[in-house]
Amino acid sequence: MTRRQEIIKFAKTLFRERGYKSVSMRDLAKAMDFKAASLYNHISSKEEILAEIILGVAHYFTDEMELVKQLEVDAKTRLEAVINHHIDITLRNPEAIAIVNNDWVHLEGEHHQTFLQLRNAYEEDLRKIISEGVENGELKSKNAEVILFSLLSTLRTLHSWYRKRSGIDGQQLKNDITEILLRGIIN
User: For the HTH tetR-type domain, which residue ranges apply (predicted)?
Assistant: First the structure.
């Protein structure tokens, strides 16, 4: 692991525990047993760390959505793939998911705009999958916005709920959440 990766790893933990705004570069240096000035040899700012974490997750979701869009399958199968991707990254990187959900508003300038573009494009792609499923009769004729909200609300907050649980198998979690989220909308 490079020094930069180590810094980002420690920052994820601190940002999740205390929130981005409450963590200073001095706090990060202290957690790593470094001098604050030496962090700047590897990272130019705290905002750079935040942007790397958040945009890394946003690009992951965008890349995964591109794979889902290429699948020549029904809407239900595409939605299952989306749910599984969300759960996978939540289980692998819960700190980053928490930071995306809680601290994206602290991004500035180009980083902020890039994140919003990626998030909006992802949501629009998911909306299209849902709408196509409704139009094709695969999904119940419900409001696509309500379905989108229900799916994303559950998936975006999974990190917080899962953190308080132990011993739940990842595959069982995928199976159960997929069934519960889709049962109400599949014809």
Answer: 1-61
Mean pLDDT for 161-172 is 80
Dist CA 69 CA 118 (whole Å): 15
Nearest C-alpha neighbor of 62 from the set 41, 39, 99, 89 = 89
Instruction: Show the tokens assigned to 154.
Output: 């559950």
What's the rounded Cα separation, in Å, for the pair 31 and 20? 15
Model confidence pLDDT, tens digit, residues 1-20: 898 999 999 999 999 999 99
Q: Give me the pLDDT at residue 59, please.
A: 97
Domain shared by 134 and 53, yes or no: yes
Helices in 19-108 by DSSP H: which ranges?
A: 25-32, 36-39, 46-70, 75-92, 94-103
| 3-state class (DSSP) for residue 139 | strand
3-class DSSP state of 118: helix
Indicate left, alpha or beta for 74 from its phi (over 0: left) and psi (-120 to 50: alpha): beta
Give 28: exposed, middle or buried? Use CB within 10 Å, 0-12, 13-18, 19+.
buried
pLDDT digits (tens, 9 = 90+) for 122-132: 999 999 999 99
> 101: which 2 tokens?
């959900």
CATH code, 37: 1.10.10.60
Q: For residue 139, what are the β-bridge partners? A: 186
Domain span at residue 15 reads 1-44
